[in-house]
Design a protein that fits this description.
The complex is a heterodimer of chains A (366) and B (263). Chain A is globular, with a radius of gyration of 25 Å. Chain A is built from nine helices and 20 strands. In chain A, the strands form four sheets. Chain A has a six-stranded mixed β-sheet with strand order 6-7-8-3-9-10, sandwiched between helices. A five-stranded mixed beta barrel of chain A has the order 11-12-13-20-14. A five-stranded antiparallel β-sheet of chain A has the order 15-19-16-17-18, with no helix packed on it. Chain A has helices at 2-6, 52-60, 102-112, 117-130, 146-158, 176-193, 204-210, 228-233, 238-243, and strands spanning 10-19, 26-36, 41-45, 67-72, 75-76, 87-90, 164-168, 196-201, 213-218, 221-226, 248-257, 261-266, 269-275, 284-289, 294-297, 306-315, 319-326, 331-337, 351-356, 361-363. Chain B is mainly α. Chain B is built from eleven helices and no strands. In chain B, helix 2 (51-58) packs across helix 11 (235-260), helix 7 packs across helix 8 (176-205) and helix 8 runs antiparallel to helix 11. The radius of gyration of chain B is 23 Å and the shape is globular. The chains are: A alpha+beta (366), B mainly alpha (263).
Chain lengths: 366, 263
């Protein structure tokens, strides 16, 4: 299997797909190119209608691309029906077969593949142990809670040992506490099984906590691909910066360009920014600044500082968020931790000095 | 806005209800009661007896008619259910095709056409093509008018089954046939069974069409009862009718119970 080592798990090459005809035509995917490595936890993240589910269904074989190619470990799988692809799916609504027991659900793929009865029995045991559901083997899906159905759906999809596991918003039907617990479990499951996971979600927190890499999609295109930290800290455009977490969007004037930094003027202060794309000195541009990268001090000690008047203050439990109007009229949100702070935060109407952490401002491409 | 009164609060509600119930069910009750009469009268009570049941079961004419009725009902309901299942699958799961709405109307049209029209049309058709009248023509005719009765519960069931179950089956290495055989068909089964029961009862009970398309010497139970009534009443007819009633109630109840069962 030398070649399988070199080939990525999934390769999407310039895939396009349109739905509908005439005036109702919708471009679901528009020239998507992606490479998903072996053993990766890869997430397709985007708002509903961005094409992420269509792309997942294409890898599973339920949709065919109009254009482009899909490769699984280097092999062109375009045109192969779903039952001939060595990938399995965890469906959004689990799609457990209601007329079969848990054990029969898990065994279904193995029966279809014509595995020996002994091996099927052994695999059922292993899979149910993997998701800690051994004592539920004889139950029907309707007798299980949402979280338990979720585990069985996972066990069923893993039973034939697929080379790639596809997960279509599998946590969206669970309540918050369970969802958080399942995140950690899914991540651990990926490491234990060594199977490539392709995960679809619209929940940015889910994507950030679980993924090795994320592709942010919108309007049928991939906006940015990268590790969670890169996506969050170095968004390439305002869509990504806005969709993942919260951000301030401010207009600045580019003063000076260096190797991979730009010095920009914002309301009199000079900010060190990282660059997402081309920038030209002397022109106006947009920067994204995360609220938690802004710190404030009443007296404003040390370094180039901005100055503004507090307009609003929201208590968020762990943090306090300040809305500050800068001298040039632009609004800046700053978020400060409540823990370990001696003095109360400044109140509305108070003038404060603010600092942006060096390099934390991101000069956007659009 | 005024809250509507519960219907039972209107004057005369219970009187009207009881009158309707009596008109509907009292005659049937009388028929059943007099089937146990000890004397040969359907109006004067002469004591309890099962003699008329014994006589009816021993009557070779009734035996033959019952056998014919069962053969026709089983054959026609099974054939109609197969056709109805295929039609429901094509309409609910097939890719959109032209004239889908028209097909739906055509399937259900026999429910609205007066039965006598269907009966005459079938008789003329069989005579025109030179098809010999007999048990086979009865089976064919029953199959035709049973299709919409079988179709309704099957289509209702199928429309409640999400397509992601078939997706899941195919994702788990079942080809189209096996995804149908092991996932969709078992999930449709309560609807199919309900449709089969309904078709069976509709066929068992039919008189007008049967009377028209049957051949000489071939009688079904409703035809036999009609023939006996023309000769003269006896509690034997009551006994046969009561048995048919019980069989009908049993199958319709079964159809209802199975049809509403969750998968």
């Amino acid at each position: 299997m030398e070649s399988a080592q070199k080939n990525p798990a999934v390769e999407i090459r310039a895939v396009s797909k349109q739905f509908g005809r005439g005036a109702e035509q919708v471009k679901a995917l528009d020239g998507v190119t992606l490479t998903i490595g072996d053993n990766e936890f890869f997430t397709l993240l985007g708002p509903s209608g961005c094409g992420k589910t269509t792309l997942l269904r294409m890898i599973a074989g339920f949709e065919q691309p109009d254009d482009g190619g899909i490769f699984l470990f280097g092999e062109d799988i375009k045109g192969l029906p779903p039952h001939k692809r060595p990938v399995n799916t965890v469906f959004q609504h689990y799609a457990l077969f209601p007329h079969m027991t848990v054990a029969e659900n898990v065994a279904f793929s193995l029966r279809m593949l014509g595995r020996a009865p002994g091996e099927i029995e052994r695999t059922i045991g292993e899979m149910l142990a993997l998701v800690k559901m051994e004592q539920f083997a004889a139950r029907k899906p309707a007798q299980l809670s949402g979280g338990q159905q979720q585990r069985i759906a996972l066990a069923r999809a893993l039973a034939p040992r697929p080379r790639v596991l596809l997960l279509d918003e599998p946590l969206s039907a669970l309540d918050l506490k369970l969802r958080q617990a399942m995140r950690a479990e899914l991540k651990a499951m990926r490491q234990r099984t060594g199977i490539t996971f392709v995960f679809v979600t619209h929940d940015q927190e889910e994507a950030l906590t679980m993924s090795d890499r994320i592709a942010v999609m919108s309007g049928g295109r991939v906006r940015q691909t990268g590790a969670p930290r890169d996506i969050y800290e170095k968004p390439c455009d305002s869509f990504v910066a806005n969709f993942i977490g919260e951000s301030n969007f401010l207009t600045v004037t580019v003063e000076r360009l260096e190797q991979d930094a730009a010095w920009c003027r914002l309301d009199g202060a000079l900010l060190q920014c990282s660059c997402a794309g081309e920038a030209a000195a002397g022109f106006d541009a947009r920067v994204s600044i995360r609220p938690e990268q802004v710190s404030f001090s009443a007296d404003g000690g040390g370094g180039p500082a901005l100055s503004g008047v507090v307009e609003n203050l929201s208590y968020l439990g762990t943090d306090t968020q300040l809305s500050v109007r800068l001298g040039d009229g632009q609004m800046l949100q700053a978020r400060v931790q409540n823990a370990g702070r001696e003095r109360p935060p400044p109140g509305p109407g108070q003038r404060i000095r603010l600092r942006v952490n060096p390099g934390a401002a991101r000069l956007l491409a659009d | 806005m005024r809250k509507p009164k519960p219907i039972s609060a209107y004057p005369g509600f219970s009187q009207v209800t009881w009158l309707c119930m009596a008109l509907l069910y009292a005659p049937i009750l009388v028929v059943a009661v007099y089937s146990f009469n000890a004397i040969r009268s359907i109006t004067t009570w002469g004591g309890f007896s099962l003699a008329w049941y014994a006589k009816a079961f021993a009557n070779p004419h009734i035996q033959a008619a019952t056998l014919n009725s069962l053969v026709v009902a089983v054959a026609a309901s099974v054939a109609a259910t197969v056709i109805a299942t295929a039609a429901a699958l094509a309409l609910a799961r097939g890719r959109g095709f032209r004239g889908r709405g028209g097909v739906f109307v055509l399937i259900n049209l026999p429910l609205m056409i007066p039965e006598i029209v269907t009966a005459v049309a079938m008789l003329i058709f069989f005579l025109a093509i030179g098809f010999q009248l007999g048990l086979l023509t009865v089976v064919i005719a029953h199959t035709v008018f049973c299709v919409p009765f079988a179709y309704l519960p099957i289509a209702a069931r199928l429309s409640g089954i999400e397509t992601f179950y078939e997706d899941a089956a195919q994702d788990l290495y079942a080809d189209r046939w096996r995804s149908f055989r092991f996932v969709l068909l078992p999930m449709m089964m309560p609807g199919i069974f309900a449709g089969l029961m309904l078709a069976f009862i509709i066929s068992l009970d039919d008189f007008i069409i049967t009377n028209m398309v049957t051949g000489p010497g071939t009688t079904t139970l409703p035809l036999a009862i009609y023939g006996m009534v023309r000769v003269g009443f006896s509690p034997e007819i009551n006994a046969i009718s009561t048995v048919m009633l019980l069989v009908s109630v049993f199958f319709v109840s079964l159809s209802y119970l199975v049809g509403r069962r969750r998968a």
